[in-house]
Description:
Layout: H1 7-17, E1 30-35, H2 50-57, H3 68-82, E2 86-90, H4 99-114, E3 118-122, E4 132-134, E5 141-143, H5 148-154, E6 165-166, E7 173-176, E8 181-186, H6 201-216, E9 220-225, H7 245-254, E10 259-262, E11 269-273, E12 276-280, E13 290-297, E14 300-307, H8 310-316, H9 322-325, H10 327-347, H11 354-373, H12 384-391, H13 395-404, E15 412-414
Parallel strand pairs: 1-2, 2-3, 8-9, 9-10, 10-12
Antiparallel strand pairs: 1-13, 4-5, 6-7, 7-8, 11-12, 13-14, 14-15
Helix pairs in contact: 3-8, 10-11, 12-13
Amino acid sequence: MTKRIPFFLAMTLLLSLLPGCAKQAKAAPVSIVTATDLHFAGRDAYAYTGTFRQDSENNGSGKQMQYLDDILDAFMDQMLGERPDYILLTGDLTFVGAKASHEALAQRLSGLTAAGLQVLVVPGNHDICSRAYILPEGEPVEAPSVTAEEFRKIYAEFGYSGGLSYDEHSLSYVYDTGKGTWIFMLDTNFQYGSSLGQLSDGTMRWLKSQLRRCRRAGAYPLLAGHHNLLMHNERFNIGYIMGNSDEILSLVKQYGGDLYLSGHMHLQHIAQEDAVTDIAGGSLAVYPHRYGRLTVNGGQWAYDAQATDVSGYATATGCKDQNLLNYAEFGYQFFYDRSFAQAEKILSGVTDDRELLSRLCDLSARANVCYFGGSLMTIDRSDAALLREYAADTVWGDYLETILACTEDSLSRKSAD
């Protein structure tokens, strides 16, 4: 007599065999570190000397190129100590997209995977370029960049293998943590070589299908990408926020998403709209070299930003460079000096009083450094009225007004209960 399999058991077996039917996993805590905008170059391809370095340092962006290799080493050492389940790197992995820089970075990151840590990456607007260059003697020399397919191959062990689904229209993919959280790594580049961000129609269809699949699996969707989903500052708009952000936001909310991790601005800032939070991480190349710690458990999450301990790593490794050994002071002063010079260049026409100009530039520099570091509430604002009086009609005054209006720091946040 043939035994019949009970109907519910037969259906369970059938569903488990069907493609696209992910197994439901019981929610459990997932520890994640997120970092962005490494702008890594690599000393083998770049000589940090010459006028190009000086011009790069003086453009106001605050990138610390001279010690970027050391900063990355310090960050990786902290990761080996903290041992998060996942490390998300959300774009602008390289300085200007040179293949040599990508390969050097992948080689360094392999030290994390060799230690059992899972790194997930996506490209930013600096990573796949029409024109890339290296600086073997301190001045730019054109060099090969990478195609999307080459990017995928170079970073194969950092997300581009072992994922749950890969978008055929972009370098986006989904990674199942097995703990009730799916990580959506989104390639937000509208066109490689452009600074604009947008998800194509094909990627939007793929994203919707994967969000639907995530919901059927009873999992929580955590989204990450390079460009911003929400506005963080009215002056960081075109070129920063994705062109179809409203459509993406609506889709995310429809399928239970409430958190997106971004970068691109080099600014540590948290924005919220309609119960969706966009945490823009500070650039790892800019003081205080922030990264974020995130714990996700069944849709509940908690985030806090940390500074890379460059001086601690320098001390532990026997480094003799005093700038690295005293990096908290050096790093701050480096960014402060460049912010001060930028403010002085713009505000020099508002007054002939050198002492007053110095006070205006001092407030500007302190505010700029603290704003990019996410800790604006720590600064003394006693000269804010003077800045408004003398610089109100300047571009710099408008910019400072937007950041002095901030009423809280952007170093930590929790999901709604």
